[in-house]
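Re: [ENG-882] Designed sequences occasionally contain unexpected residues at chain ends

Forwarding the minimal case from QA. C-alpha cells:
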C-alpha cells in the first residue's frame, strides 16, 4: 500500500521546477508520473499517482451519482489535472497556472495525506495545520481513539 507521510519543504526555481521529496518518490516508484490538480477545498494542489486517479475513476463507475455530480468531478478533477513526469533529478515542473492558484512562491510544502499528497505555500499550510490541530484537540481526536473505534466495528476475535 502506498502511503505518503510527512511535510517536506523544497525550493521552487524560476522555471517552476521543484524536487519531489525522496520518500514521496519512493512511494511512487512503480507509478511513474504524478497527477496534480487544484484542491477543491484548500488553496493548495492535490497530487497522486495516475493509478490512484484510475481507482477514483473506477469508483465513480460503481456509484449511482447524480449527473451533475459526475459533471463536477470530471470538470474539476479530471479536466483540471496535469500529468507531470518526474525527471532524472527527481523534479517536476509545476505549471504557472497551478503555482498561481496555490500561491506558491520560492518554496513548496509537500504534505502527505495517506494515499495522496498536497503541495502548498508553506506559510499557508502552517496556518491551516495550526487550525486543524486546534480543531482535533477540541474534538478529542486521537490515534488510540480511532483504532479503538475501528476495532469495535470488527467481528469478535479480529483485531
Amino acid at each position: 500500500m502506498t502511503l505518503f507521510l510527512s511535510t517536506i519543504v523544497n525550493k521552487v526555481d524560476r522555471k517552476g521546477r521543484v524536487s519531489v521529496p525522496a520518500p514521496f518518490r519512493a512511494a511512487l516508484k512503480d507509478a511513474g508520473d504524478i497527477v496534480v490538480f487544484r484542491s477543491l477545498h484548500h488553496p493548495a494542489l492535490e497530487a497522486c499517482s495516475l493509478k490512484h486517479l484510475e481507482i477514483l475513476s473506477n469508483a465513480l463507475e460503481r456509484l449511482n451519482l447524480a449527473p451533475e455530480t459526475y459533471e463536477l468531478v470530471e470538470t474539476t478533477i479530471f479536466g483540471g489535472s496535469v500529468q507531470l513526469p518526474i525527471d532524472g533529478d527527481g523534479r517536476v515542473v509545476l505549471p504557472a497556472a497551478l503555482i498561481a492558484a496555490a500561491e506558491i512562491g520560492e518554496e513548496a510544502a509537500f504534505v502527505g495525506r495517506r494515499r495522496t499528497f498536497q503541495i502548498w505555500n508553506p506559510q499557508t499550510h502552517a496556518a491551516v495545520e495550526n487550525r486543524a490541530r486546534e480543531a482535533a484537540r477540541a474534538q478529542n481526536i486521537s490515534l488510540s481513539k480511532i483504532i479503538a473505534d475501528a476495532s469495535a466495528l470488527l467481528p469478535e476475535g479480529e483485531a
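QA comment: On inspection the terminal residues look reasonable. Strands lie at 7-11, 17-19, 34-38, 45-49, 82-84, 91-93, 107-113, 116-120. Proposing we downgrade this to a documentation issue.
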